[in-house]
What we know:
elongated; Immunoglobulin-like; 7 strands; alpha+beta
Amino acid sequence: MHHKRSYILSLILVFLLSPFLLKAQIADFRDSVIQISGITMTADSLRAVPAVSVLVRGQGRGTISNSAGVFSIVVFKGDTLTFSAVGFKKKDYKIPTTLKGNNFSLIQLMVEDTTYLPVTIIKPYLNRQEFERAFASMDIPDDAYEIARKNTENARLRAMTRFTPIDGAEGTNMYLNKQAQSLYYAGQPPPQNIFNPLAWAQFIQAWKRGDFKRNSD
């Protein structure tokens, strides 16, 4: 019975104190949220830097300074702001957790990033004799027609025919033709071309053309 009364009293206390606890949490949340309005400027000449990206690290949100370098963003105390722009070094700023208040102004100075360009080489212009000699010995690359002519040479085509493997479509057609031929002569011996006069005529014509000699080469 005593434990039951203690439990009921605890519930009553929590019920009575919950509004105060909720108000305290809301007050802490409001105190941690701050509004920052600032401007991004160059460190050497104090001129405005537009289009500076102001991101809250790890949260995927932020803003961009306008043409006058002015920006405004809502953050929490303890967040880290990252300032980045083309031609300037990236800068991080962690907002202190000891700030008092909810509205602050910030001036972020941006330092220009040094960019090293490739070396420029200048030479004297050639005279007429040097230009004619250089033009005569110039190695001009082949155009599309010359490349096509080389690719269609008989020697190149024979080499490609001998060493290029068949693709999937050719292999499938070859298999289907053999399968159809085996089914066509199923149950009977296939014909022998040695007794076929048409095959002998084709063989003699190929012999005269020199097809076998070119294949052996």
